[in-house]
Structures are given as C-alpha cells and as structure tokens.
Design a protein that fits this description.
The chain has about 375 residues and is an all-beta fold. The protein is about 0% helix and about 40% strand. The protein contains no helices and 29 strands. Strands 1-9-8-7-6 form a 5-stranded antiparallel β-sheet, with no helix packed on it.
C-alpha cells in the first residue's frame, strides 16, 4: 500500500550557493557542469521545463519563486527514465519503477505543502508511466491500475470524492489502463479495450459536473497519444487524425468557432499525427517528425516566428524535423529530437526556454548546457 512520501537524506537536498533550498523548478547550482545534448526525455510544466540527461540524471529550468534561466541539475535524482512537471512540482520515474517528486504544493502534501521540498520518494511500486496536471499527479502501474494524488477540487484524482490526498489513491473502477494523461484539473486513461475514460473538470462531454470517477469519452477509440490542457483535450487517433474537445476560446480545440466543444471533433489541416500536446490555450501535433500548432499565440507558443491573434488552423513550427517527443507548458512548448537535442519556444519570462535570456522564443531555441 502507498504511504506518505518519505524524505530522502539531507545530502540529496538541492542547495543554492547560499545553502538555501532552490525554487520549485527543483534545481540546485551545485551540480557539476554537463551538456543537455543526448537527452532522453523532456517535460514542460506551467513555467518550467525538465529533461532527463543521457546518464539518467535530471536537469530543470524556469520556476516560480526564483528564476533559473539555464538547465540546472536536480540533486537526489538518478536512473530516471520518465519526467513530468506541473504547476509547482516535478516528478521522475526510475528504471526500477520508483517515483520521486519535488517542489511544492498539494502533490508534496503535509502541513508544509507550500514549503519547497527536495526530491521525496513516493511509496508506490511498479510504476510504468506518469502524468501530471497543474496540482496533481497520476501513475500507472504494471498491473494496469492508476493511482493519483494531490489537489482534488474537480475530482481529478478519480477517487469518487473531492478530498485532496498527499499519498497515491487508486482511481475507481480502473484496472486495465495502458496509457494515461493529465492536465490542469482532469485526467484520462486509455483502457486495454481501446476505450478512453476521463475524470475531473467540467469540460468533458458528459452531463455530470466535474465527474470524480472515470467516464467514457464517446467518439475516441484506440488513440496512440492523448494530451490534456487547461480545459481542453486532444487525441491522436489510430487513423492519424487528431480529435479535440473542451474549451475553444482561443481555437485550442481546433474548431473554427470559439465556443466549447463537448464532442471530440477532428482538427482539419493536419497530416497523419503520432503525438499530441496541449498547453493552457494551445495545442500541437507531431507528424512524421515535424510539428504543427494551433490556438493562442500571444506568447509565440505556436513557434511561427511571430506573435499573433489565436490561430484556428494548424501552423507549421519553423525549422523542426526529427521530433520524437513533445511537451507543452502554459505558454511554451518543447520538443526532443532524435539526436537527443531539445528545442523550446514561446514564453520565456521565467527562463523556461533555458537559453539564459528572458527573450520570447519566436522560433525554437536550444537550451544552454547543464550548469
């Protein structure tokens, strides 16, 4: 059974030069220098980005309380094979199936939930996949069960209630998940039979407000990728089409009218897509290694070399090819290339692009080497 996260030894604490815990990006300046090239995974949170280096260590940049503008190593995390980031936290999964989380907020829990936490072990075994919302995290285990913890005001934990939890709780009536996704305040899973179920928020195609147990999403069958944003969701279908639903105020769900879409609707103007990502008000799809994005572009989150009004039709991101992974934060997006290089674009107020500046990334930029 899962228990309350256990703190790692004090030597694992990520420290600044002054000896104080660094910000919620989870980075400390006493890691040894390295290069972000050869990255294995990339994750984008609200205003932060994290990556797994080739040796399984983790580097993060961006933040909320303190700006970290260059990739900085997170001490106390090793052998990572997966990384996720949320509003003020990040979590990694190791090759052995263990999970560590750091930062602050409901995911870290306890009386000092607003204090900064170093990496803490979450006592949940045999984890094979992670997904993070703004203030909650879900984990899929090798048996097909899904466990979630953190904020639960919209039922995003799927526990048939609305009480938050600082320890993992099993999602009700879900034991055959093969893929999971999470966004601001909702979560989804692909079941072994090809059905997609979601829970939380009130922008799902159901008659129930903020359902706190999994509900079937009609019109989405056997997707290969699912992404959950801030009130909108997208899925790359086995046909190669992308279907989205939910909020569409900035055309983030791909419909040509700015109103909520309660039924999954195919986004026009895309080729066959294998991956999707969803930010606060924008969405992206990867098609044969290239990227197209649509929705809000006030922070240049579409990567089209300019800011603009929201775009309803997918726009090709400038200068990208060989993309193998994509992740979207609130107003920025990052991709991992087959070479192991990372490219990011969009808002850079908190250093989430990792290039050492606060300049908006109108086109994809490469983060600096790890500090």
């Amino acid at each position: 059974m899962p228990r309350r996260p256990v703190l790692l030894p004090l030597t694992a604490l990520a420290l600044s030069c002054g000896g104080e815990a660094r910000d919620a990006a989870g980075a400390g300046s006493n890691g040894d220098p390295g290069s972000i090239s050869g990255a294995l995974r990339v994750a984008a949170g609200a205003q932060r980005t994290c990556a797994i280096e080739s040796d399984g260590r983790v580097a993060c940049w961006g933040g909320l309380e303190e700006v970290i503008r260059v990739p900085t190593r997170v001490n106390g995390v090793s052998n990572a094979v997966e990384i996720v980031a949320g509003g003020a936290h990040a979590c990694s999964r190791s090759s052995s199936g263990s999970v560590h989380c750091w930062g602050k907020g409901p995911v870290l829990g306890g009386e000092d939930a607003q204090a900064l936490h170093p990496p803490e072990l979450v006592e949940l075994d045999n984890v094979v996949e992670l997904a993070s919302g703004r203030e909650h995290v879900c984990a899929r285990t090798s048996s097909g069960g899904v466990w979630c913890w953190g904020l639960n005001s919209r039922g995003q934990l799927g526990t048939a209630g609305y009480e938050p939890s600082s320890v993992p709780r099993p999602v009700t009536n879900l034991s055959d998940a093969v893929l999971i996704a999470a966004g601001s305040d909702n979560s989804c899973a692909l079941r072994a039979n090809g059905e997609v179920v979601c829970w939380g928020t009130d922008y799902l195609p159901t008659d129930e407000y903020a359902p706190n147990t999994p509900r079937l999403i009609d019109g989405v069958q056997s997707p290969v990728s699912i992404a959950v944003g801030y009130g909108h969701l997208c899925a790359a279908l086995s046909t190669g089409e992308v279907a989205c639903w939910g909020l569409n105020t900035s055309y983030q769900a791909g419909a040509l009218h700015p109103s909520t879409i309660f039924d999954p609707t195919v986004v026009t103007g895309l080729g066959a897509a294998e991956l999707v990502a969803a930010g606060e008000s924008h969405s992206c799809a990867v098609q044969s290694g290239k990227v197209s994005c649509w929705g809000e572009n006030s922070h240049a989150e579409l990567g089209i070399d300019r800011r603009s009004e929201p775009m309803a039709e997918p726009q090709a991101v400038v200068g990208l090819s060989s993309v193998v992974q994509i992740a979207a934060g609130d107003f920025h997006t990052c991709v991992l290339l087959s070479s192991g290089d990372i490219r990011c674009w969009g808002n850079n107020e908190w250093g989430q692009l990792g290039d050492g500046t606060d300049d908006t990334g109108l086109i994809p930029v490469r983060p600096l080497p790890v500090q």
